[in-house]
Amino acid sequence: MTIAEFNYIESMLWFAMALTLIINLLLKGHKDAYFTVSIIASLAFIAFGISDIIEASTGAWWRPFSLLALKAVCVVSFIGCFVKYRKIKSAIHTDQ
């Protein structure tokens, strides 16, 4: 398997993660406590999947610089969503 093939497979994983979040949103509706976090995370997963497709054609995750910037924004978004998710989860369990 080449690196490009691996990147294409990896992009499908990120798209599947985004699709899972979107399906979960559709099932639970906009009143779910995690709605905003799920939207942001699904958009970040889609962008990360696109970045892997771009990476497959460039051969590197750091060039062009815009690809590195896109990946950095996605990672920061994932971290921010995780932190917000933990805060919401903690608040929900504290209220019960």
TrEMBL record:
What are the protein's UniProt keywords?
Membrane, Transmembrane, Transmembrane helix
State which residue ranges cross the membrane. Answer: 6-27, 34-54, 60-83
State the name under which the record lists this protein.
Uncharacterized protein
